[in-house]
Design brief:
Blueprint: E1 3-10, E2 16-17, E3 33-40, H1 43-51, E4 76-77, H2 82-88, E5 92-93, E6 97-102, H3 108-118, E7 123-127, H4 132-142, E8 149-153, H5 157-167, E9 171-175, H6 192-209, E10 213-218, H7 228-234, E11 237-242, E12 249-257, E13 265-271, E14 274-277, H8 281-285, E15 296-303, E16 306-318, E17 326-329, H9 333-347, E18 354-360, H10 372-384, E19 392-395, E20 397-398, E21 404-405, H11 410-419, E22 424-428, E23 443-447, H12 450-458
Parallel strand pairs: 6-10, 6-11, 7-8, 7-9, 9-10, 15-19, 17-18, 19-22, 22-23
Antiparallel strand pairs: 1-2, 1-3, 4-5, 11-12, 12-13, 13-14, 15-16, 16-18, 20-21
Bound molecules: thymidine-5'-diphosphate and magnesium ion.
């Protein structure tokens, strides 16, 4: 009989301890230890498990020269979903383990079911959360019912892998890792040791069979995937599905990718019949109004390798209370504070007596520093109540001394602004190297300092 042992596991890094401790000695996090029961398998049980296809003991790998390793023919399974292919780096790699994390209700199951129905391949979709009828109802809504999509409602990892080995699908989807339970350990589904054990089994299965596996994982309150770092280390690719539930846009972001860049981003729109790919995000993120209003400016940003024009909106109003309020949606609040300080110091604008609210259209979050210049213009525009013409856009980073800095991939930004019919783009004076101005019909205006921007735009 397997020995049952109680341990405490750090939910951040997976360090174990025989008793509860407040601060993890391995990763330094506080209050992360959780009680868990693990069973140590006896050698006989280990052998039996290996026979059943779990465990690893009757496989005996040998060192092989790199030149003799054959890269398989069918290395990537290209899905009909262009956005998913993009974030994966060009399709699903054979034998890869992909984790899709996201908050409840964001659309993870919908996305994976759409993929399962859409790929021209045999898919085994395992759900531990929904019944067969519920999955069928959802499938009816989101797509054409494919004959080679098998549904299995099961939570026992050993059984799932037995079915998967027998059925030999081209893709295995697990919805979700937190519902799985391995029969070899005692703890409850969703506990750290269960999640780790099941993910380990799935990884072995993927590597040995060459079948790619998608795992759906819920995100806990703190915003990380439950059993977080552990799971991220085990899998090859981590995708995060995010978005505001009040908006219809969903963003699929690559957090880690062993087979491609982590710069990529997929955009979807949630509709009544499932998720729709958004291939031209700029046109959706620009406001549809014709009239010019103060406090609004358009930024030519890059999200991953894709240029995107985003409308930034600022509202500056007299502070009612002693301490003025600052609020930002989709933008780093500390960076907003810095921009305000620069404006105050370099141009003498009285932001310290004003409340400042900042908002990016569409519920999108932007980390690209090139958005600074548009935000700055929106702030000045709202403060002075003078509108920025809506055929102008901006791309530039603002430094602490008020200098406008060069940003990456300027030609792509200019090209996108040109394509969307903007008449003028403000960029840094130091950003013109290699930029072929004659190629575009848009006027390129260079500025070196924020004072210069202020004079050209508002005086
Ligand atoms: P779901 O995929 O169940 O989320 P998750 O698996 O991440 O928890 O998505 C649920 C939400 O998506 C639900 O609130 C309703 C919405 N939705 C639509 O708007 N249209 C649709 O066609 C579907 C299937 C879901
Ligand atoms: Mg779900």
């Amino acid at each position: 009989m397997a020995k049952i042992r109680k341990v405490f596991i750090c939910s951040n890094c997976g360090n174990t301890s025989p008793k509860w401790i407040g601060k993890c000695p391995a990763c330094g996090e506080w209050n992360t230890y959780q009680e868990d029961i693990i069973t140590k398998e006896t050698p006989a049980e280990k052998k039996r498990a290996a026979w059943q296809g779990v465990g690893n003991i009757n496989r005996d790998p040998k060192p092989v020269p790199l030149t003799e390793i054959k890269a398989g023919e069918k290395r990537r399974l290209v899905t009909p979903d262009g956005e998913l292919n993009r974030v994966l780096g060009g399709g699903i790699v054979a034998g890869s383990l992909v984790l899709i994390g996201g908050q409840p209700g964001i659309g993870k199951s919908t996305l994976m079911l759409q993929v399962a129905l859409g790929v021209p391949a045999k898919v085994l979709y395992v759900s531990g959360e929904e019944s067969e009828e519920q999955i069928k109802m959802r499938a009816d809504r989101v797509g054409e019912i494919a004959a080679d999509c098998l549904i299995l409602t099961e939570v026992n990892t050993a059984k799932i892998l037995k079915f998967a080995t027998a059925e030999k699908p081209d893709l295995l989807v697990i919805d979700s890792i937190q519902t799985l339970a391995s029969p070899h350990i005692e703890s409850t589904p969703g506990s750290i040791s269960q999640v780790r054990e099941c993910a380990g089994d799935l990884q072995r299965f993927a590597k040995e069979s060459g079948i790619p596996v998608f795992i759906i994982g819920h995100i806990n309150k703190e915003g990380s995937i439950a059993g977080p770092k552990l799971l991220e280390h085990i899998v090859d690719t981590v995708l995060q599905f995010e978005g505001d539930r009040n908006y219809t846009y969903r963003i699929l972001r690559t957090i880690k990718n062993r087979f491609g860049s982590t710069d990529e981003l997929g955009i979807y729109e949630m509709q009544s019949d499932g998720l729709r790919e958004v291939s031209n995000p700029s046109e959706l993120l620009l406001s549809q109004t014709e009239e010019e209003i103060s406090g609004s400016a358009v930024s030519a940003t890059m999200e991953g390798m894709r240029p995107m024009l985003i409308e930034t909106q600022a509202l500056v109003s007299t502070a009612v209370y002693g301490t003025p309020q600052r609020s930002a949606t989709g933008f780093d609040l500390r960076r907003l504070g810095m921009l305000l300080a620069v404006l105050e110091k370099r141009c003498g604008f009285p932001f310290a007596q004003n409340d400042v609210f900042l908002n990016l259209a569409g519920g999108i979050r932007v980390d690209d520093p090139a958005i600074d210049l548009a935000i700055l213009s929106a702030l000045i525009s709202s403060l002075l109540d003078v509108s920025v013409p809506n055929d102008i856009c901006f791309a530039g980073e603002v430094g602490l001394s008020g200098e406008i800095r060069a940003v990456s991939r300027i030609d792509q930004r200019v090209q996108e602004a040109d394509r969307l019919g903007f008449k003028k783009i403000f960029i840094s004076k130091y950003n013109t190297k290699g930029l072929d101005v004659s190629k575009y019909s848009i006027e390129i205006k260079t500025v070196a300092k924020i004072e210069e921007l202020y004079r050209t735009l508002f005086e």
